[in-house]
């Protein structure tokens, strides 16, 4: 069984903003922001729509990171 270490609170990632070097905030899975109900949908099913073609097969969880200082946004693939 594969699980995301960030979603499950097992790890924390410190990612610096490429613009201002502030530590970015992990805002969770990218798929949670699709609509009001996407956070409650099956995770594996939502991976078919996350924008990365092999996230299901490669056991990747795409996370949204946000910089509170300069509002830079980016996604990072987290290995499950």
What does this entry look like structurally?
With 80 residues, the protein is mainly beta. Helices cover 5% and strands 24% of the residues. It contains 1 helix and 3 strands, in the order βαββ. A 3-stranded antiparallel β-sheet has the order 1-2-3, with no helix packed on it. A hairpin with a 6-residue loop joins β2 and β3. The protein is globular.
Rounded average pLDDT: 94
Are there runs of 5+ residues with pLDDT below 50, and where?
A: none
**SSE sequence, one letter per element:** EHEE
Number of strands: 3
Summarize the topology:
Layout: E1 25-29, H1 43-46, E2 60-66, E3 73-79
Antiparallel strand pairs: 1-2, 2-3
In short:
The chain is mostly beta strands and 80 residues long.
Pick out its properties:
80 residues, mainly beta
């Amino acid at each position: 069984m594969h699980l995301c270490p960030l979603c499950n609170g097992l790890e924390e990632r410190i990612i610096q903003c490429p613009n201002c070097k502030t530590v970015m905030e992990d805002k969770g899975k990218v798929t949670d922001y699709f609509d009001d109900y996407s956070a409650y949908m099956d995770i594996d099913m939502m991976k078919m729509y996350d924008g990365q073609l092999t996230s299901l097969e490669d056991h990747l969880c795409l996370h949204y990171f946000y910089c509170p200082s300069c509002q830079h946004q980016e996604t990072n693939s987290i290995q499950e």
